[in-house]
Design goal:
The protein has about 170 residues and is α/β, with parallel strands linked by helices. It has a single domain, classed as Rossmann fold. Strands 3-2-1-4-5-6 form a six-stranded parallel β-sheet. Helix 3 links the parallel strand 1 and strand 2. Helix 1 packs antiparallel against helix 2 and helix 2 packs across helix 3.
Amino acid sequence: MPKDVKALCAFSEKVGYKPKLLEEAISTNAKQAKHIVDLTREELGNLKGKKIAILGLSFKPNTDDIREAPSLKVINHLIKEGAEVCALDPFAVSNAKKIFGSKVNWSASLTQCLNGADCCILITEWEEFKNLKPKDLRLMRKPLLIDARRIYDREKFPNTIEFRAIGLSQKE
């Protein structure tokens, strides 16, 4: 949890310890949202006008807590690049609406979120998103899945679906 790591880092410094490993973890976490958007751009090129489906807004599953949620940073980067963002989350939409308002299209279903999208980015590993099937992704203009939580097994998706995941050094 980013806020827990930051608190531990601050406490360590108070007692005279320089927590280099914790500082590096904070730095790496801060870069992840941009990395997700970079992966998207590598596949799609210019993101202006591209519809990007975001699955998961909350910091973790089974909560509406969006404090420190990576989705907020990813969505901000995408909006700055001119992408059309469509988002779905079982609990956190009302909290996210307070931040983004009409800058994001809010979906009521997986089908609505994926329909016509150029890319799907999984950010929060909700149970209902773990069951994503290749047929769901075929609703997209370009079946491209970016798995920011590494919950999917590439073997379950046919070669007609582009698949990228955080931590993989290359396309699978």
